Amino acid sequence: MNEPTSPLTPQQAELVARQAERWNDPRTQDDARARLALANVRAKANEPRLTSQLKHLNKAPTIKHKIYWLRQMAETFADAAAPQAACRDACDGCCYQSVAVTQQEAEVISREIGMPLQAPTEWSTLPVMKYAGQPCSFLRDSRCTIYQHRPIICRLIFNMDADALLCQVTSGVRSQAPYADNSLYKELYIRAHLGKVKGQEEMQAALKSLLMADLREFFPHGLGKTKQGETA
Q: Is the pTM of this model over 0.85?
């Protein structure tokens, strides 16, 4: 766990200490690897589906179509990881983490939910730490109000620990948990936006042109007004 950027309350300090003890326990890593092994068996069976989806992704003519197929691939990933993960209904730990999305994905979500985008005040291809510990603007009563249209990164986070202790985020402290490896899907997400790039050097150069920001920057008020007419 990294050092907090601001003083912690006694409750926060106790939580961080419990998390550090859990994370540093060798059994945590061993148990997570065992769950990942079971998830990998299921992932192996899903390879034909994933291969087909990847072909569709590569042939997709627009970023809107690419995002559709990236979502499908994320569901295939989830099909393997979710049964072994600590994630459960109304578990909202990951909703307090940074959520980096591209301008293009934010535009797709905007059209789907009927909410206009706001211009971000801070662009970054990396998670913005100031949002660690802050609830997502779409979080209500421990549930995502745009779950069907949630960002792709939200579909790829699975804590392979026994419970949600390590998912709980303290403001200014970077979350650390034995997450399922989603690096391939993150790279596909970036490449889908950049087009054809060869090698890491070309990708690093292309990243400079990629507009990304935290979801809260694009939608600071979430869905705005609730159905009851109250301010969200």
A: yes
In a domain, 225, yes or no: no
Domain interval for residue 48: 10-218
Total domains in the chain come to 1
Coil/strand/helix, residue 100: strand
Residue 3 belongs to some domain of the structure: no
Within-domain flag for 4: no
pLDDT tens-digit map of 186-201? 989 988 988 776 677 7
Dump the DSSP string for 22-90: HHT-HHHHHHHHHHHHHHHHHHHHTHHHHHHHHHHHHH-SSHHHHHHHHHHHHHHHHHHHGGGSS--TT
**Residues paired with residue 212 on neighbouring β-strands, in sequence order:** 102
